[in-house]
Specification:
The complex is a heterodimer. Chain A is mainly beta. Chain A has no helices and 10 strands. Chain A is globular. Classes of the chains: A mainly beta, B mainly beta.
Chain lengths: 110, 119
């Protein structure tokens, strides 16, 4: 099974908002409200930021929000900060009882 | 505060077996799904599979012929074996805790351990 589709990179300036999309099929993203998002700084452990499409993990800033429409889930980061620069991955449950990651998106804060 | 720590040999030759263990501290291994995830250099995260505390497993279809996961509740550990490794298996390997349902997100992660396949 191929990875969920994410843009390879997105960029924004401090204070701006950006959205990262995660596109799958009706057998994964579109079929379940079990999409999560992870922030990954190189050399560190990935960190859960959003689960169940739109719920923020404990301690995560409300600048991070998640949503879903059809087969596409989205992560929006508002009020961009330099520390938000990282790789972001979506993860979805699938009809096979497994999970699958997106290909990852590199966020650059200019 | 639950913490996870991966351990195991960091190097193997082609065709050998990768064996990693994840030790859970600060909490019980019972009633959770425990996952293995890897990341080759310059590439994205790949889910390898999960094991429930009862021993029930589910694997990534692309790896399932080579993967075996096990759990030792007495030691609060779970393990990964990957047979017939090649250079393509060189990666940072992470263990992660899911929830009580197989679709739950990964709330806790280990720091990761580098595994290299080289002759």
């Amino acid at each position: 099974q191929s990875a969920l589709t994410q843009p390879a990179s997105v960029s924004g300036s401090p204070g701006q908002s950006i959205t990262i999309t995660c596109t799958g099929t009706g057998s994964d993203v579109g079929g379940y409200y079990y999409v999560s998002w992870y922030q990954h700084h190189p050399g560190k452990a990935p960190k859960l930021i959003i689960y169940d499409v739109s719920d923020r993990s404990s301690g995560v800033s409300d600048r991070f929000s998640g949503s879903k429409s059809g087969n596409t889930a989205s992560l929006t980061i508002s009020g961009l900060r330099t520390e938000d620069e990282a790789d972001y991955y979506c993860l979805s449950y699938t009809v096979s009882g497994t999970v699958i990651f997106g290909g990852g998106t590199k966020l650059t804060v200019l | 505060q639950v913490q996870l720590q991966e351990s195991g040999p960091g190097l193997a030759k082609p065709s050998e077996t990768l064996s990693l263990t994840c030790t859970v501290s600060g909490g019980s291994i019972d009633s959770f799904y425990w996952n293995w995830v890897r990341q080759p250099a310059g590439k994205g995260l790949e889910w390898i599979g999960h094991i429930y505390s009862s021993g029930r497993t589910n694997y990534n279809s692309s790896l399932k012929t080579r993967v075996t996961m096990s759990v030792d509740t007495s030691k609060n550990q779970f393990s990964l074996k990957l047979t017939s490794v090649t250079a393509a298996d060189t990666a940072v390997y992470y263990c992660a805790r899911g929830g009580g349902r197989k679709w739950d997100a990964f709330h806790v992660w280990g720091q990761g351990t580098m595994f290299t396949v080289s002759s």
